[in-house]
Amino acid sequence: MNRLIALSLFLICISYLSFSQYKLYVEILEIRNNKGNIMLQLFDGNQKVVAQEKSPIKDNKCSFSFTNLNPGKYAIRYYHDANLNGKMETNLVGKPTENFGFSNNVIGKFGPPPFEKWLFEINGDKKIVLKPTY
Questions:
Q1: How far apart are CA 31 and CA 60, in angstroms?
Q2: Which region, left, alpha or beta, applies to residue 47 given φ > 0 means left and ψ of -120 to 50 means alpha?
Q3: Parent domain of 89
């Protein structure tokens, strides 16, 4: 009986470690002003949107928190929706007129950077700090 209880506890512990869920904290700093919201998308390593959130800006920064994430690769893109219309504004040639950014603070030259450069690994609780492109 004691062996059965010990084996059961062991299997429960192993299954808990095998299916660990992690938290991701994202802080975006140096936002130009406090108008509007930051609109953010979290992607898995296969470019599938895992979460889509918005957060108000206070003191030229905002934060996001994601829970129950499996270990693996993730990526983020975001923009400052200053006029609260729910879309990124662009000029006549398609260049964004609202601030934006990507995980790892990567910057594209003529368009967004390659998705592979946005990727970061989650294998425990993680905090990342991002700064928008102007």
A1: 5
A2: left
A3: 21-130
